[in-house]
Amino acid sequence: MPAGEAEPFPRAVLDVLEAAGGRPVFEHGSRVVTGAEMLDLVARIAAGLRAEGLGPGDGVALLLGVNPEAFATILAAHAVGARVLGVRPGLPDDQVRHLLGLDVAAVITDSDSTIARRDVRALTVDSLRKARADGRPRCAGRGADVARLIHTSGSTGAPKACAQTYAAMTVAWAARPDAWPPAIRELASRLDRFLVFGSLSSQVMFEYAVVAITAGGAAVIADRPGFPEAITLHRASASVITVARLAKLVAAQRRAPADLSSLRALMVSGSPLTADRHREALEVLGPVVFHGYGQSETGMIAMATPADPPGTVGTPPAVSHVEVRDVDGRPVSPGVDGELFVRTPEQADAYWADPARSAEVFADGWVRTRDLGHFDADGRLRLTGRIRDVVIVNANLHYAGPIEQVIAEHPDIAEAYVVAAPDEDTGEAVHAFVVPSGGRTPDLAALRALVTARLGAACAPVAVTVIAEPPLAPSGKPDKRLLSRTLT
């Protein structure tokens, strides 16, 4: 690195840990880890990686649980300039083997384990942390190098590896309070005890843990992440939650309210939240709901605070650019639906080793989201569906998103998922999978009448299947492809 040039990511995060000193930054059961202890752990693991000959441009896969060592290992791998690939726990063996085939030089695990590929070097956190720290951790990432591969959810197709460079991660806002958008600044003030679970390889979980520590709070690890139990057990002030889990939490609070007096923020992510469900969550849980919108390709695009109108995802920050375009690629007026094209400072550049699909999504500095939405008169963003999530009835294309939103407005429905079902007369027809609300059985005729009145008869479901909950992809998002397979 040239003399005088600022060090890249994760320098800002390491500076936060250094400033924290003796303040707790992680809590795991009875164990408390201070900023100074975490920084020392990062330095030792980074020294261990360098001793193994790993450095800028080398692919490193992480198969780690949720613990302070996992957080330190992520930072250490970035400090040496590696290309970091987080592997979510619980993936099938064939998916793990596929991920380890993405030009990986080494895989790091919590303890000794059998790795699915013999040509990949296996290391453990315990062995790496025994290295002698060689002073303050150095950050050796090269700006144009890929810093991490973030896999998309795969909820509407095969997961893709988004390649984010060190230059992009360095300008990201998570560890830089002066760069926090207004919604993040408000959220950060509520992250005293941020509940962490699932996987620290999750883009959302890792980055909000960084925000919490930067804001003076701590990441609190929940080994059992059920809601509301984890919130009450750990006296958590904040957590990330999916739409499905939020619906369950709201229903549970209506039946038998738990003590959620410590709770100040729930970041809803993964899928859009309908206006009615958003409003109900605010009524039952109080002004704690932050509705985030982002993609693996872009990072955060916008976030609604509890003060924003239900059903919106807030106003994009000044550093992010969002255009709503028609089918010919021309910007449309506020209030008119179109496809969202986005530019953010921290966005990915491409899909790893996939030039064909990269060309479909990344062009001229913009990311094609394939999401549908519009700006309202006040400049707030509203999401309405997915471009390729469609049902083709009598050769006419109908987006599933608006149909799902209308069905979910019915008082007997908590969640709705629309898929295309084969139909002898129309080619395809709408089939709705619904999670009932309050144990009531939804009436098909009533749902058909509601959808017909709002969207037309072609969008009305020809059948409704009641489910307890949707199947989930490895990302935690509802997997509609699995629902579709039940119809064949």
From TrEMBL:
Pathway: Lipid metabolism; fatty acid beta-oxidation. The keyword Translocase does not apply. Keywords: Ligase, Membrane. Residues 403-477 form the AMP-binding enzyme C-terminal domain. Transmembrane segments: none annotated. Gene3D superfamilies: 3.30.300.30, N-terminal domain of ligase-like. The keyword Ligase applies. This is Long-chain-fatty-acid--CoA ligase. It comes from Saccharothrix ecbatanensis. The lineage of its organism: Bacteria, Bacillati, Actinomycetota, Actinomycetes, Pseudonocardiales.
